[in-house]
Design brief:
The protein has 420 residues and is α+β, with helices and mostly antiparallel strands. It has helices at residues 85-96, 99-120, 129-144, 217-233, 240-251, 339-351, 359-364, 371-380; strands spanning 71-74, 158-168, 171-173, 190-199, 202-211, 255-258, 261-264, 266-267, 272-276, 286-288, 303-311, 318-319, 325-328, 357-358, 383-386, 389-390, 397-406, 410-413. It has eight helices and 18 strands. Strands 1, 8, 9, 10, 11, 17 and 18 form a seven-stranded antiparallel beta sheet that branches. A three-stranded antiparallel beta sheet has the order 2-4-5. A three-stranded antiparallel beta sheet has the order 3-16-12, with no helix packed on it. β6 (255-258) and β7 form a beta hairpin. The protein is globular and about 60 Å long. Bound molecules: ligand HZT and manganese (II) ion (2 copies).
Length: 420
């Protein structure tokens, strides 16, 4: 096992390379020129271009089926320290009993790292958000084999974990294009890219923020620092409110100047991280990003998505705009009376179970004119809607997020890569 005790500037094993050249354009907080357009100056011959790096199933790159560990981090609170070698031995034994489970989580994380490395050098002003979503989701489908004939009868075994969030500026979360959306990414935009991969229901939830204009650099730095602070603070028996307090203090220590106006970075106080359970993006615990008095503790073996949001706005989000994200309510079992709703619910159960999905995923399954049925399922409580979450118009929000595992002896930042 690799073991990095130092937390502030951890060493990260590079993602193993596929064959062939890869671009390494800086994207996160980068300074890409406004006129750096994709595809300029290309001669358009009628020849079909051969793809240099076709994406294959992840198993191809790991014939042994053993996936790389994430970044290890020591628990830094006294009560997490194993005081005797016997205790340490028992911890390792308990952890070894779940080796296959951890390996599945790491497989999803490895796919997440490869998918995002694949999209990061392609993101340019002028792109349609719907094309960005397609790049991310099609790469996830390829790596997970979601479209393999063998796997088609079991669509929930591995694949997309939840819809690709591509939320711009004052929109903090839960925007993904619905069909026909013509939104174009602009040089001035601040975009949160939040996507998920699942292997046997084990969801990797991780996100970063893209900005081309360097004036947002301090906003992004504040939120990245706040998220890593949350990760450092996390641990078995740690109170959720204490994590929120630490995150808030770091976030608020930053200022950012945008178009000549200076802002103290605020946390979006009603957004939070969460634990993750099999096929459930929210396992029931919420990790605040401000001190909120929640004395609930983290527990051994839990998975958490540690995410923070910083803003130049009010620091409070509301639901606004057309909904794209939905998920089957895991604990509502009432059967719809409407025939169309019954049919749609079967499509949802068969293809997503309790995993979040979006309207585009229903479209590609061949569902048509399903909105009335979908809305009726939401009204009955069988399906939960997750509309976009927005701060005040004109504000800018940023996000960083990692999935972590609370092993008995150490925590593992499983989604940590060489990019963020
Ligand atoms: C809901 C629907 C999705 C969970 C957090 C999140 C993206 O805001 C308890 C705490 C995907 C995820 C979620 F389609 N949400 N992480 N990444 N969104 S949440 C939440 O609803 S519930 C936070
Ligand atoms: Mn997320
Ligand atoms: Mn999350």
């Amino acid at each position: 096992m690799s073991d990095t005790a130092e937390v502030s500037v951890p060493e990260v094993a590079a993602v193993p390379e596929e064959k062939g050249p890869i671009d390494t354009g800086a994207v996160v907080g980068g300074n890409a020129a406004p006129d750096a357009q994709a595809g300029s100056g290309k001669k358009s011959k009628n020849k079909k271009k051969k793809k240099k790096n076709p994406i294959k199933k992840i198993e191809t790159y790991y014939p042994e089926g053993v996936y790389p560990e994430g970044e290890w981090m020591d628990y830094d609170n006294d009560f997490n320290l194993a005081r005797t070698t016997d205790e340490e031995k028992r911890y390792l034994q308990r952890d070894a009993e779940r080796t296959d489970h951890w390996n599945e989580v790491r497989k999803g994380a490895e796919i997440h790292k490869r998918v995002r490395r694949n999209v990061q050098n392609k993101l340019k002003p002028g792109m349609l958000l719907s094309d960005i979503a397609d790049i991310i989701e099609n790469a996830t489908r390829k790596y997970t084999g979601a479209e393999d004939l063998k796997q088609m009868d079991d669509p929930k075994s591995q694949g997309i974990g939840f819809p690709t969030g591509l939320s711009l500026n004052h929109v903090a979360a839960h925007f993904t294009p619905n069909s026909g959306d013509k939104t174009v990414l602009k040089y001035e935009d601040v975009m949160k890219v939040d996507f998920g991969v699942q292997v046997n229901g084990n969801i990797i939830d991780s996100a970063w923020t893209v900005a081309f204009d360097p004036q947002y650099d301090n906003l992004l730095a504040a939120v990245k620092d706040a998220t890593y602070t949350g990760i450092k603070e996390a641990g078995i028996d740690v109170r959720l409110t204490d994590i929120g307090e630490a995150i808030q203090e770091v976030m608020e220590s930053y200022e950012v100047e945008i178009n000549g106006e200076t802002f103290q970075v605020k946390p979006c106080r009603n957004l939070c991280g969460h634990n993750i359970a099999p096929y459930r993006i929210h396992g029931g615990k919420s990790v605040p990003i401000v001190k909120n008095g929640d004395n609930t503790k983290m527990e051994e073996g839990e998975h958490f998505a540690i995410e923070t949001f910083g803003t130049t706005g009010r620091g409070y989000v509301v639901q606004e705009g057309e909904c794209s994200h939905y998920a089957r309510n895991a604990d509502t079992h009432t059967s719809p009376s409407l025939t169309s709703a019954k049919k749609l619910l079967k499509t949802i159960d068969d293809n997503f179970g309790t995993l979040p999905f979006c309207r585009r995923y229903l479209d590609r399954l061949g569902e048509e004119k399903y909105l009335f049925a979908l809305n009726s399922l939401v009204k009955q409580g069988a399906v939960q809607d997750y509309p976009p979450l927005v701060d005040v118009r004109g504000s800018y929000t940023a996000q960083f997020e990692h999935t972590i595992l609370l092993h008995p002896h150490k925590k593992e930042i499983v989604s940590r890569g060489d990019d963020y």
